[in-house]
Design brief:
The complex is a heterodimer of chains A (470) and B (83).
Chain A (H helix, E strand, L loop, with lengths): L1 E2 L2 H4 L7 E2 L5 E2 L4 H7 L4 E2 L15 H12 L2 H7 L8 H7 L28 E2 L9 E5 L10 E3 L3 H7 L8 H14 L3 H16 L5 H4 L9 H13 L4 H5 L20 E2 L2 E2 L10 H9 L17 H4 L2 H8 L13 H18 L17 H12 L5 H21 L11 H5 L14 H14 L10 H11 L2
Antiparallel strand pairs in A: 1-4, 2-3, 5-6, 6-7, 8-9
Helix pairs in contact in A: 6-8, 7-10, 12-15, 15-17, 15-19
Chain B lengths: L1 E4 L5 H4 L2 E4 L6 H11 L3 H5 L4 E5 L2 E3 L13 E6 L5
Parallel strand pairs in B: 1-5
Antiparallel strand pairs in B: 1-2, 3-4, 3-5
Classes of the chains: A mainly alpha (470), B alpha+beta (83).
Chain lengths: 470, 83
């Protein structure tokens, strides 16, 4: 069953579609979309059955499973603790979005191992052998329904920890469980809250706007209260429910725009502050659905072993990419390659966490997708043809975006990352240079067969029409 | 003397920490010294999962040539996991 919650029924723009306690189709307000259609849920009552394939495919499924289970990141991190591992390197790097990205590092009290006492076990998605989803239990004598649950992932930890100035593991877990129950996208909801808290800090909004509620960093009880109000569109929750659209809805003054951490109207998904890592920054700017890392994040940019092996890095991305994380040189190539592989992975139903380049260079990628497609369908693809399929996905999405008015100016980043230097960590002072970014964006368009406005060039548009059979 | 701390996933092969008393001046030399103390450890560390931080400064490139000195605290950090 896939269903929306009361938040979706109320048209909350950060509401998702739930398919389990935590499993959520989250980004871009799909819960609100279903709610607007007055569609509460979809239930499939059926049995799985074998289907005819060109060649047996199960033996190669086992090969793929063995490959991903043998990968260090799966074996030693994802299967044991889950994604919160990333919190520690992010805060040490000074790349941890804190207090709506006013700061970039936070306490070690939220490091992954601090969650160990509250993690009774790991679970997995349907038939996935990885089991990377941490369960949680706050060990209350008389637990309510928010004292036990599923999660949090790194994104939720970041958005409901440092992003809101919260330093308690117990608070993060409880807020995670509330969001799951309410069917809220923790990324966009956390972004909306962080924005509101900064506006309150700066006096751009006051208790006259919030219905008397004080918005102070670290106040987890108020955050919990606001989550329930958001799902119900009650009081100031009605403002938060409009998320990044709060200015055009008349809730906030135009001066608030400067502090909104969003691209194309979508709050940032991952909690990374990307002033340091230029490949991350470009990916967030050009992602078609808004400020989202799952489209193209070049995660391996934070890995020194790969950065220091120029030949291997060149092989991974089909050409040289600078070893320095702060460099703009050739980073567009890495984003292009990641976007293509991830789009193909999405198309064949491979989880992002176990797709090559997102977490490891050793995970299944184009070659495995190609072979299994051949086994199942009998269709033969070359690697280049599959990569072109990935590019086509992005091209079609950009055509849709263009029709909706999205242009080059929208492939950008929050002003803060251009204007304010990173305040902490080994890369203190780092920010995004507007000219360098613009040149990198131009190079990205050129290798992606996009016009200067970011839409597929004429010859490719004709190919896309042919590919779509239109 | 340089103290190297390891994450839980490496405790079986390295324990929670190793103190290197041998004179070394770079991270590359430090890893070689660790391998002499615990044969095979360098191979374990040659894994994209791990990054190295020196005195809480996480290193993203040019790791082997990064200087270290007596009294430094070095940490092996699992970095790739999602999400």
């Amino acid at each position: 069953m896939a269903n929306i919650t009361r938040a979706g029924e109320n048209g909350v723009l950060t509401a998702g579609v739930m398919a389990g306690p935590k499993a959520i189709y989250a980004r871009g307000g799909p819960g609100a979309k279903m709610g607007s259609l007055r569609l509460k849920g979809i239930v499939t009552i059926a049995q799985t059955h074998e289907f005819e394939t060109s060649q047996p495919y199960k033996p190669f499924n086992r090969v793929i499973a063995q490959k991903l289970l043998g990968t260090s990141v799966v074996k030693n991190a994802l299967s044991k603790t889950g994604t919160p591992f990333l919190y520690n390197p992010s805060r040490l790097l000074g790349a941890m979005g804190t207090k709506n990205n006013q700061e970039t590092t936070w306490t070690d009290a939220l490091d992954a191992e601090r969650f160990d006492p509250y993690r009774p076990g790991m679970e997995g998605c349907f038939r996935c052998p990885v089991n990377c989803r941490p369960l949680n239990d706050l060990h209350k004598a008389t637990p309510d329904k928010y004292d036990q649950g599923d999660g949090p992932e790194y994104v939720t930890l970041g958005k409901f920890g440092p992003n809101l100035g919260i330093d308690s593991v117990e608070s993060v877990i409880r807020l995670n469980n509330i969001c799951n129950d309410l069917g809220l996208d923790t990324a966009s909801t956390g972004s909306a809250l962080g924005w509101a808290f900064e506006l309150f800090q700066r006096g751009i909004i006051t208790t006259a706007d919030t219905g008397g509620i004080q918005l102070h960093w670290g106040d987890a009880a108020t955050v919990a209260q606001l989550l329930f109000m958001t799902a119900a569109r009650e009081g100031f929750g009605n403002v938060l429910a409009d998320s990044t659209r709060a200015i055009e809805k008349g809730h906030y003054p135009a001066a608030a725009r400067k502090y909104c951490i969003a691209v194309k109207g979508l709050g940032q998904s991952d909690p990374h502050d990307a002033r340091i890592l230029k490949a991350f920054a470009l990916g967030l700017a050009v992602a078609t659905r808004g400020m989202d890392h799952l489209r193209n994040r070049v995660t391996l940019e934070i890995n020194a072993r790969i950065n220091d092996n120029a030949a291997f890095k060149t092989e991974l991305y089909g050409g040289p990419v600078s070893a320095e994380p702060t460099s703009y040189v050739d980073k567009e190539r890495a984003v292009r390659v990641c976007e293509d592989i991830y789009a193909v992975g999405d198309s064949v139903g491979m989880c992002r966490f176990t797709t090559k380049l997102f977490n490891s260079p050793s995970l299944p990628g184009i070659e495995e997708f190609r072979d299994q497609l051949s086994n199942v369908t009998g269709l033969e693809f070359t690697n280049q043809e599959l990569e072109q399929c990935g590019l086509n996905v992005m091209g079609v999405e950009r055509l849709i975006n263009h029709r909706l008015g999205v242009r080059r100016k929208d492939d950008t980043l929050p002003d803060r990352w251009f204007d304010e230097p990173n305040p902490s960590g080994p890369y203190k002072g780092e920010k995004i240079d507007r000219q360098e970014f613009d040149a990198m964006l131009t190079r990205f368009y050129e290798i992606s067969r996009l016009t200067s406005e970011g839409v597929p060039e004429e010859s490719w548009r004709k190919e896309l029409v042919g590919a779509l059979g239109a | 003397m340089i103290t190297v701390n390891f994450p839980a996933v490496l405790h079986d092969v390295a324990g929670p920490s190793i103190v290197v008393r041998e004179s070394v001046s770079t991270v590359g030399q430090l890893i070689a010294a660790l391998d002499r103390l615990k044969p095979g450890l360098a191979k374990e560390l040659d894994d994209p999962l791990y990054n190295i931080a020196v005195n809480d400064e996480i290193l993203l490139h040019a790791v082997d040539s990064r200087t270290v000195k007596d009294g430094d605290i070095v940490e092996v950090i699992p970095s790739m996991a999602g999400g």
